[in-house]
UniProtKB/TrEMBL annotation:
This is Xylulose kinase. It catalyses: D-xylulose + ATP = D-xylulose 5-phosphate + ADP + H(+). CDD domains: ASKHA_NBD_FGGY_SpXK-like. Residues 70-219 form the Carbohydrate kinase FGGY N-terminal domain. Its EC number is 2.7.1.17. Residues 230-427 form the Carbohydrate kinase FGGY C-terminal domain.
Length: 489
């Protein structure tokens, strides 16, 4: 399917009369975690494709399994447990690779293939990620896995940016050889293969820059580039990603090398109950209307008089809690000092407080967990995207809670935009003969290009930001107790 997709897209571009000869560099975005298993002997097929024929028919037999594991996988719990145990526990694995073991990560999936389909494993000469697979098709030889997408495998030491021997051993024998080498995301994977030069008239000097995963490419496409930049995607689920100099992996959340820099890190937090919970509370308390929802947000005071809520309509990832709503009121609530105040659990809030408790709760959790991962407080700026970023009241709550300006980008294509930017970045680094910051390409030009973002809410008052910090501390204490009582380990 992925090979056919490349055939199709190039055929369509050809029909649209695109002049392929003008393209200086190509990169791309592949779904994170997915992997492809090249059959023994396939590198020869890959390097000698006939330009008269589509790729799909020539590569039909190049794979040791036709079923690629992808992110929507929950079959590898046993393998996750075994790998964590072998390296000294979940936290230890997270310290090395940036994440504890996850069912969707490639390492546990490879171990499962080794355990359940030994023939497939033995018959595999190279394992590619979706990203490096596509780069391999374009260069006509096996491309490296890039450092950022490589961190979504539970196999790479994110500090050294090399395969971790101990984890490779805990995953499957002979794995290093099958994975090949790693490379920075801005590196040249190779020149475009003669197949594409002959068939589509690409320039033979066109560079293929390492492809990377979809989330890292979104970070690049939103023009996050230096420590303190943070993006909040308010979709069906919420995702937060930012850039930090520090490296503080923990049990929840992920740390990857920054795809547009060689030193810093990309932190990513995933919440399942984003718009899912917002819509539920809107329907229950606000007449199914965003207008009423917003009126309630405007009617109620910041800090909500010490009312804190936890709303999990579905199993939550961060924190790992089951379905359930939990509401608390801080006794003797005093905005200046919360040390004394104990919380008291209550059954319900009035509808306006419920709406504020939900929005503040979601945002305080994002602030607490991103600071725990080393994001500075306040961040330099926040870029908000996703469906709910159309809501100005939610955006001004973000500015009040985080204490920085909030910008919006109404573009549905930040991952592919990021891949295009990274192609140009890789080309530029190659031309200069050393790494140059990606921001050189667009600094001072943002306003006149499609990279433009709009200032949607200005930084909140600093006193309020400090008060929110106290409320956040209290929330974290309650959250930790909930995880101890109800959490999944
Ligand atoms: P996905 O993650 O599925 O791509 P989107 O980023 O398109 O989702 O976001 C869709 C969500 O945006 C919907 O679930 C809806 O609840 C939410 N949404 C749309 N408009 C608003 C609004 N004005 N206020 C809050 N949420 C909104």
């Amino acid at each position: 399917m992925w090979v056919e997709a490349l055939d199709l897209i190039l055929q369509r571009l050809q029909k649209s009369k695109l002049d392929f000869g003008k393209i200086a560099a190509v990169s791309g975005s592949g779904q994170q975690h997915g992997s492809v298993y090249w059959k023994n002997g396939s590198s020869k097929i890959l390097s000698s494709c006939d330009p008269m024929k589509p790729l799909m028919e020539q590569l039909f037999d190049a794979f040791s399994t036709k079923e690629s594991p992808v992110w929507m996988d929950s079959s590898t719990t046993e393998q996750c447990k075994a790998i964590e145990k072998a390296v000294g526990g979940a936290l230890e694995l997270s310290k090395i690779t940036g994440s504890r073991a996850y069912e969707r990560f490639t390492g546990p999936q490879i171990r499962r293939i080794f355990e359940k389909q030994l023939d497939v494993y033995r018959n595999t000469e190279r394992i590619s990620l979706v990203s490096s697979f596509m780069a391999s098709l374009l260069t006509g030889s096996y491309a490296c896995i890039d450092h950022t997408d490589g961190a979504g495998m539970n196999l790479m030491d994110i500090k050294d940016r090399s395969w971790s021997k101990i984890i490779l051993e805990a995953t499957a024998p002979g794995l290093e050889e099958k994975l090949g080498k790693l490379a920075p995301a801005h590196a040249v994977a190779g020149l475009i293969s003669p197949y594409f030069v002959d068939r589509y008239h690409f320039n033979k000097d066109c560079l293929i820059i390492q492809w990377s995963g979809d989330n890292p490419n979104s970070l690049a496409g939103l023009t996050l580039n230096s420590p303190g930049d943070l993006a909040i995607s308010l979709g069906t689920s919420d995702t937060v990603f930012g850039i930090t100099n520090e490296h503080k992996p923990s049990l929840e959340g992920h740390v990857f090398p920054n795809p547009v820099d060689t030193n810093s890190y990309m932190v990513m937090l995933c919440y399942k109950n984003g718009s899912l919970a917002r819509e539920d509370i809107r329907n229950q308390c606000a007449d199914k209307s965003w207008e009423v929802f917003n009126k309630f947000l405007q009617q109620t005071q910041p800090l909500n008089g010490g009312k804190l809520g936890f709303y999990y309509k579905d199993h939550e990832i961060l924190p790992p809690l089951p379905v359930g709503f939990h509401r608390y009121v801080l006794e003797n609530f005093n905005e200046e000092s919360l040390d004394e105040g104990r919380e008291c659990e209550v059954k319900e809030f009035d509808p306006p407080s419920e709406v504020r408790a939900l929005v503040e709760g979601q945002l305080l959790s994002m602030r607490a967990h991103s600071e725990r991962f080393g994001m500075p407080s306040p961040p330099k700026r926040i870029i908000a995207t996703g469906g709910a970023s159309a809501n100005d009241c939610i955006l001004s709550s973000i500015a009040s809670i985080f204490g920085c300006n909030v910008y919006t980008v109404q573009r549905p294509d930040s991952a592919s935009m990021g891949a295009a930017l990274r192609a140009a970045h890789g080309w530029l680094c190659n031309k200069k003969g050393n790494f140059v910051p990606i921001s050189c390409m667009y600094m001072d030009k943002m306003e006149t290009t499609s990279l433009k973002c709009k200032l949607a809410a200005t930084a909140g008052d600093q006193e309020l930001v400090s008060k929110y910090a106290l409320l956040m501390k209290k929330r974290v204490e309650i959250e930790n107790r909930l995880v101890q009582k109800l959490g999944r380990l």
